[in-house]
Amino acid sequence: MKKNDSPKKQVKPIPHCRQKILVMLFALGISIHGSANSSVNVPHELVPSITLEQSGIAIEDIDAGPGCNYILYTFAITNTSTNGEVFTNVNLNHSLPVLGDLISFNGGDDNNNNLLDVDEVWEYSALYTIQSADINSGQVASEADVTAEVQGQPGVTVSDLDTSEIDLTFCQGGIAVVKQGFATNDLDQGGLGCVYIFYNFIVTNQGQQVLENPILTDPLLGGEIVGPEEGDSNTNGKLDLNETWVYQYVYEIQPEDIANGIVENQAEVTANVDGKPDVTVSDLSHFDDPLDDAPTVISLLHCQTPDMGLIKEGVVVDANGDGCLESILYTFTLTNTGNADLDGIILEDELLGGEIPGPLAVSDDGNDGILSVGETWTYFALYAITQEDIDNSSVVNQAEVSGFAPDDSLVEDLSDDDSLFEDEFTRTPVPEDSCTDGSPDPESGLGLIKQGALIDNDNNECAESILYNFSIINLTDIDMVNVVLTDELLGGVIAGPISDENNDGVLSPDEVWTYQATYDIQQVDIDAGSFVNQASATSSLFGLDIQYDDLSDNDSYTEDEPTVINIPVDACPGGDNPGGPGEPGEPIGFEIFNGITPNEDGLNDFFFIQGIEIYPQNKLQIFNRWGVMVYEKEGYGQGNDLFYGISDGRVTVRKNEELPSGTYFYILTFTGNNPGEAEYTGYLYINRG
């Protein structure tokens, strides 16, 4: 701001001794507050100087005391020259842009000559409106500066600046909430219980400002808590200074709370400084200290009745896949029947060697090792039948389980054969023709057949590939998982399967999975006249640490002979077909033979379809001359699924009976890859001779 006109004001002269000190300091080249700027620098020359002092105070109003609405700034500009210089064109500027046009001159130009004479003090003031952002930051920091020209010395100016920080932390306000509670059965009579939790909230004004719009929220209790019940003494809806409000809420204890053993949560209170909706205060609750923050924890351990039940069931199985029952598969079902979560679970069975590994990961909800209320875990164990068991006609025993409640108390149970709440021994009958083979044979429970056929991909009568079909069967009585098929000459692990009966990733007993892979014929194979190799498969019993493996055979699940594919001399190596591409091709040698003589002489005993094993996604239906279906099979030609002239299928009139000689009609359909057509039909002749 530039001073244009001002009333006179008496200024107290600088004492004579102070003048001497200033003269000495200027003579030494030391500047006090302000300094002169000139294009000519004369060492040790007395220079003119000016001083600016800025101060401010936060007030409620111009005629009121301290508050948070305005800051009253005052500025004092003094000519502190010691050589008689006079200043003109005095300009006062401020870092707060809004003050530029609000600074007013209050006086000090004693002779009203618009010149800042020596020792003269000019006073200014400005009123700044405090913003919400200022209160939220807790202060207003600013800087003012003054410039002036030295009269009679063109180009010589003087300047000074001063800073200030006005504290506004007292404007921010403060609030606190304490949350306390106790569990009870009766709100009127009190006492320890397990039905309700009675919560009491104490909200206090911790600052120097009246607060409006206080809101108390608690997520556990549904959000905003209505109130207060008491404390708003003047019923103005504002939390006045030193006022304490009390809220109350009754929470109904839930079963999961008892299971956890505690109810732990935290409330929050928010409010605005009165008249300043953008200035917000808040606090998280504490259980007894208004100046701290911590959740309120209500113990419900006294409400817990921890318990669990164990069922042990056994069934005699063939775990070797050799057709003889030699093992007992035990299934343990453990359920939390109490109202408290349990951990540290240990299942033991002396008959099975002590601790039983588990549970199955899929049965542990969240895989957290905690048996929650109502949760059921499943374990499996395999026992090898002994001669003594066969002599006794049964195996009788009992398992036990232990765990810990949230209060670290021990919880135990003995198994029952069919009830979670009883403790009877489990009796498993053992047939007299059972075997005593001992532990499962890793090489006998899994079967793998690998078959192949020459493929002419572009139908120009030149075979360039081998299409392999793999069939894996579970020969045991127990589900298998983690099935992996590997063929190193075909690149390692074979993707699949392309047929999973239930699409569940579980190879069930007697279920067959099929895979396919293609091999490009190489010149070395043509030179050798054949291509010989073998695949391998691995699996594990579901829920048991028992592994199986098998090497492939060309036609049997129980043998391990390599698969041999004869390669003609006119085959095309690496897919090189000199005749060029033709129509979409089919396996070389795919052919349906329409006559069978089922007399067990090893010749034409079954309905032979050459190359059918390459296309496992097929269905064969056979009808008699009256149109009655006598045979139906999905996946015909896979393994031993063949038609020997015996009625079979879901809708046959007489199942498993020999069909008479005669003419029959077949329909062969393909739902996946096919040998050229999606459906083949024709006549089939049975001649029993």
UniProtKB/TrEMBL annotation:
InterPro entries: DUF7507, EF_Hand_1_Ca_BS, T9SS_type_B. Residues 48-157, 175-280, 306-413, 448-539 form the DUF7507 domain. Pfam families: CHU_C (PF13585), DUF7507 (PF24346). This is Gliding motility-associated C-terminal domain-containing protein. It comes from Flagellimonas oceani.
